[in-house]
Every structure is written in C-alpha cells, then in structure tokens.
Design goal:
Blueprint: H1 8-14, E1 21-24, E2 28-32, E3 40-46, H2 53-59, H3 61-78, E4 84-86, E5 102-106
Antiparallel strand pairs: 1-2, 2-3, 3-5, 4-5
Bound molecules: adenosine monophosphate (AMP) and zinc ion (ZN).
GO molecular function, one term: catalytic activity
Pfam families: DcpS_C
Protein name: HIT domain-containing protein
Amino acid sequence: MSESTDCLFCKIIKGEIPSAKVYEDETTYAFKDINPKAKVHVLVVPRRHYANVAELAKDDPAELAHIVEVAQSIADKEFHGAYRLVFNTGLDAGQTVFHVHAHVLTGETLDE
Ligand code: AMP
Ligand code: ZN
C-alpha cells in the first residue's frame, strides 16, 4: 500500500478533483461514476490507496467487508437491496484506475 500522488481517486478523496459524493465515513468514500452504466452507478473506495481488490483483501479484509456493507446500504435505498458489485482487476479486465473501487450498479433491473 502506498499513496500515489498521481492517483485520480486519491485526488477525488482529498477533494482536489470534484466528485458527486454519495456517502463518506472515516475509512471509505463513495461517489457517482462519471460515465454511468446503470441508472445508479456508484464507486465505493477505501480512503487508503490499494491498487486492486486482491491487495485490499490481503492487507485489510475488514475494509473490503465494509465496502460491501456500504454497497448494500446504497442498494437498500435505491433498489430494494438488489445490486451488482464489480471489481475490475488488471488492465486486460478493464481496470483503468489503479485505486481499488467497487462499482455498485443498481436502481433498475439489470441484464444478466
Ligand atoms: P475501472 O475501469 O473499473 O477502473 O473503473 C474506473 C471508473 O472510473 C470508470 O467507470 C469511469 O467512468 C470512472 N471515472 C473516471 N474518472 C472519474 C471521475 N472524475 N469521477 C467519477 N468517476 C470517474
Ligand atoms: Zn489512490
């Protein structure tokens, strides 16, 4: 784990780049995806910088569990608790920002 000064999501968390905040607490920040793939598309990130979900799971499993809790509470509010949770991991899987983020897709019925 090392904070990257060049990391887009670290800058968003610090407020250096604007975002549409959905939720925040001491360890975790959630904001709307700028290019939504569902009616509600929220990114949930740990404040601490980890490159991907595997690093987070290894170093801080409680934070990963908390991210799932935050995703659940967003979906409880937006769509009776139903949601898709995606962690793109690696360039070839479509990861473009290397600060771990959960995509929470909800707010409407999703295609299989
Ligand atoms: P991934 O491709 O899994 O790494 O996801 C990165 C996500 O970040 C994409 O869905 C982008 O639309 C989203 N994104 C990129 N820049 C911003 C931004 N400034 N504010 C909110 N979401 C962003
Ligand atoms: Zn970062």
